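Hey team,

Filing this mostly as a record. A colleague (T.K.) asked me to run one chain through the structure pipeline before their review meeting, and I want the input and output archived in the tracker in case anyone asks later how it was produced. No errors, nothing strange. Just documentation.

Input sequence:
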Amino acid sequence: MVTDRELVKLREELDRWVAQGVISPERRDAILAEVSSRPEKARRGGLSVMPFIMGVLIAAGATVLVMGFADPALIPRPLAVLILIISIIGALFLAQWLSGRERTVSSQLAVVAGLGLFGAGLFFITNVYFIHVHPPDLVVIWALGALIAAIVLPSRGALAAGIVTATVWSLMEVLNYRTIFHWEYLPLWAVAFGWTISLRWRTGMHLSAVGLLCWMSVNLFTGAKLAHLNLLPQGQSERYKRAEAMVDTMDEHFGSCTNHGECEAACPKEISIDVIAVMNSDYLASKFKNRKSLSRT
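Output structure:
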């Protein structure tokens, strides 16, 4: 299906190809006849009731969130939750409606808007109903919702949102709640990465790789911390004991470094992979020096 503008542009391109000898005039006429026989698309500039209603619902959901976070007493809680649910459903219906009319970008934006309402709604409900939860649990529910939407619709925008929120969830667990090895991230990552392969979405594959690199950066952090402590005069007395203890703990909960260098490329602080070499050197030396110290006692 093509519009009048697209048909004019196609005719100009075909005339240029005929002049260049790429195709014959007969082939040009056959192409134009085939394309012209197809029904014309609905005009993009035309107004439709469906996107208008869905847009109002999305705006209503956003308004409820703003009012609810500012002052929960401004709107009754059951009504606020109902409006949020309807606005989320409306956003997903709008995405499907736009996708059926080949408006890919607008469709993906509608999906992301719906997922944004869904995630913010989770925090809103726990806030207005005074539900005490582990904050990262809300983020992982958000990520699961995004991945389910990405598979059901299917939607690249939802998939990207799922990858980002899953990575944020893992970082929250590690940085804010001292989780040493957050292995629960791997099943979500595997599902997201597998779906990017199914969709043949190269950007999604890159985004998945970035998320995994953030999760794997514990090796670089351990090496950097050891190098930092070992440079201090106060740290020399326990240098090799510390190296052995920290590396053994890291291997127990995470695993050893692969030396591929991905962590160095992704590190926001631009820490050199050389610190891992120093860590490994100190660890090997500790196997001899620590045993020698024990033999003297």
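Quick notes for T.K.: Residues 104-128 form the longest helix (25 residues). The two ends are 86 Å apart (CA to CA).
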